[in-house]
Amino acid sequence: PSVLFNDEKAASELVRHILSKGYKNIGMIMGERNSVHTERRIAGVRTALKEAGIELSDDRILFGLWRRETGFELAPEMIAKGVDAIFCGNDNIAAGVCDYLRDQRKVPGKDIGVCGFDGQEFASYMYPKLTTTKLPLLQIGGKAGELIIAQIKGESFDKKEYSVDCTFVEGKTI
């Protein structure tokens, strides 16, 4: 069995927070298109938007690498689509979007909302502090250890995949 974090649930929670702050025109800048994390995060975003009666069109999802440069390079294209908030596939991409906004004399969270994903340590030192979700890496390791011990003992598993929830981290960019 494998132990993963719940991308879809965490993405939905982030989008519900974005919507609660009054944002309605949300776009996404993601990492690689064929990543399971990309697919699950998009599914979570679509779920939360659908609950709010908002459709996310495919042209509002851009793909790149999981790097800061991706956010910086794709931000102008996404902003040109008229979005008021950008959901980024990870904190690195979000940091690049924030860099671009500052270069344009715009303030993340004031002029355009930005959120990340992963809860990287640097996100808490950004100005303004990045809104994100923290990955439960310690809990994943603990659950994986439990499963290994169970396997050594010859126990059977009721699932092929175990999921651990992420933790929402409220910053100032949404």
Termini Cα gap: 36 Å
Give me the Rg, rounded.
Answer: 17 Å
Strand content: 15-25%
Q: Could you name the ranges where pLDDT drops below 50 across 5 or more consecutive residues?
A: none
Widest sheet: strand ordering: 3-2-4-5
Number of strands: 8
Secondary-structure element order, N to C: EHEHEHEHEEHEE
- Major sheet characteristics: 4 strands, parallel
Number of helices: 5
Structural class: alpha/beta
Mean pLDDT: 95
Helix content: 40-55%
Shape call: elongated
Structure, explained:
The structure is a single chain. The protein has 174 residues and is α/β, with parallel strands linked by helices. It has helices spanning 7-20, 36-51, 68-80, 91-103, 137-152, and strands spanning 2-5, 26-30, 61-63, 85-88, 113-115, 132-134, 161-164, 167-169. The chain has 5 helices and 8 strands. The strands form 3 sheets. It has a 4-stranded parallel β-sheet with strand order 3-2-4-5, with helices on both faces. Strands 1-7 form a two-stranded parallel sheet. A two-stranded antiparallel sheet has the order 6-8. Strand 2, helix 2 (36-51) and strand 3 (61-63) form a beta-alpha-beta unit. The longest helix has 16 residues, at 36-51. It is elongated. The model has no long low-confidence stretch (mean pLDDT 95).
